[in-house]
C-alpha cells in the first residue's frame, strides 16, 4: 500500500480546487454517502470520498494521477447525496481539467473522446457524430469500438453522413477562441 506524506499538504492545490469549483472541500466529514451512491465506484482506483479526503490533504499528484477522475460519468449522484451540499461532481470535473492541464490523462481513450467531441463542437457548432467517431478512431486506433451499435443507429438518423447545419456556429467557435486566449493570458501572467 502506498504511504501518503500527510505532513506536507500542497496548500496551493487545495486553494485552486476550492476557487475553481466554488466548493468548500474542508466541510467534507467523510460520511461516504458519495461513494455509496457512485455507479462507477466498482471501476475506481480511488473512491470519490477518498478523492475528497486527498484534496483536503493537499495531495496533488495522488489526485491528479488517479483514474477515477476520468471514469466519473458526471451523473451528479454524489452531489445529490452529500449532506454538506458539496457539489462533488463539480469538483471531479475541476480535477479532470487540472489533470489535463498538468499533462496527466490516465485514461487516454476517454481524453481522446473528449478532445474529438470538443473539436467537433468548435468546428460545427454542435456535435457531428460521424466526425467524432472518425476522429476518435484516428486518435486511438480502436477501429471496431462500438461498431455493433451502427445497425441500430443508422435507421434512426443518429449517424448522419454530413454535419448538421446550425445557425450561429461561428459564435460557438468564438467561445473556444476566447477560452484559448484566456488560458494563454493566464500562462503569461
Ligand atoms: S458524478 Fe462521478 S463521482 Fe459522482 S456519483 Fe456520478 S460517477 Fe460517481
Ligand atoms: S457525501 Fe459529502 S460529506 Fe460525505 S464523504 Fe462525500 S463529499 Fe464528504
TrEMBL record:
GO annotations of cellular component type: plasma membrane
Gene3D superfamilies: Alpha-helical ferredoxin
InterPro entries referenced in this protein's UniProt entry, alphabetically: 4Fe4S_Fe_S_CS, HdrC_iron-sulfur_subunit, Helical_ferredxn
GO molecular function: 4 iron, 4 sulfur cluster binding; metal ion binding; oxidoreductase activity
Pfam short name (any one): Fer4_17
Record keyword Iron-sulfur present: yes
Keywords annotated in UniProt: 4Fe-4S, Iron, Iron-sulfur, Metal-binding, Oxidoreductase
Keyword Iron-sulfur attributed: yes
Designated name of the protein: 4Fe-4S dicluster domain-containing protein
